[in-house]
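User: Design a sequence. Structure:
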């Protein structure tokens, strides 16, 4: 880093790129204040050398907003997301993938802030644009259908959650049937929604499909496999099925290495 500073100068793109990578490392290590200080320097450098609305500058603006979101400094995060979004709409257009990505980040932030109506409207705008621009089976579109379904699940609108999570599963199976992790995850999410609706037989079948799908591709102690087993155990306990309950508890013990 010091060598780059002396040979290239403080605001050289190569040095700013290296600093950006260091900020990501610090963020992942939980050193959030250090990551923030570096990202602020990177953003100022890019704004000075590239311009305030250059693609890379706006991308770093988005990164700094995401860091403030992690730090639960939601007002600061919102200001920067809005700034990035405004610049992306002007320079890239409202349907560019990066613009839509920033809009999706805002939807999540609104939900964290308890602004449920704005969050749902923004999630739906994201999905509408992705369907039109990318198509139904693009991975970004499928992820957004899932996100909207989970949004309704966590806000206890289980009917709409089940509809959207069922659509997610159908789209994933059409688009990438080889992605067994994604299919297993979507089966698990849909099972949870069906269980909340009281559709226990449907939930049981979905949990079993998820288990078969996941066990062939993940280690037995993978968190998703354990979560799926835990839900099955709870369901069989509700149903009073002692035989299945014993089998599942034995599998859970084996997965945990007991």
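Assistant: Done.
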């Amino acid at each position: 880093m010091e060598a780059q500073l002396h040979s290239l100068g403080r605001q050289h793109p190569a040095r700013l790129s290296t600093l950006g990578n260091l900020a990501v490392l610090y963020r992942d290590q939980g050193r959030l204040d250090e990551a923030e200080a570096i990202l602020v320097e990177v953003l100022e450098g890019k704004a000075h050398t590239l311009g305030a609305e250059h693609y890379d500058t706006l991308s770093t603006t988005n990164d700094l907003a995401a860091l403030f979101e992690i730090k639960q400094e939601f007002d600061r995060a919102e200001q920067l997301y809005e700034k990035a979004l405004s610049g992306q709409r002007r320079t890239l257009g409202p349907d560019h993938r990066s613009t839509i990505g920033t809009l999706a980040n805002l939807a999540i932030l609104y939900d964290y802030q308890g602004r449920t109506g704005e969050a749902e409207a923004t999630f739906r705008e994201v999905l509408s644009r992705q369907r039109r621009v990318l198509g139904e089976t693009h991975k970004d579109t499928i992820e957004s259908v899932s996100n909207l379904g989970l949004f309704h699940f966590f806000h206890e609108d289980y009917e709409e959650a089940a509809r959207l999570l069922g659509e997610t599963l159908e789209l994933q199976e059409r688009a990438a049937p080889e992605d067994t992790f994604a299919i297993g995850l979507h089966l698990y999410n849909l099972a949870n929604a069906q269980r909340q609706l009281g559709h226990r037989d449907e939930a049981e079948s979905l949990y079993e499909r998820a288990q078969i799908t996941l066990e062939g591709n993940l280690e037995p102690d993978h968190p998703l496999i354990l979560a799926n087993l835990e839900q099955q155990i709870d369901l069989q306990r509700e149903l009073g099925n002692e035989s299945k309950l014993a089998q599942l508890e034995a599998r859970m013990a084996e997965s945990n290495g007991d």
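Residues 32-49 form the longest helix (18 residues). The radius of gyration is 22 Å.
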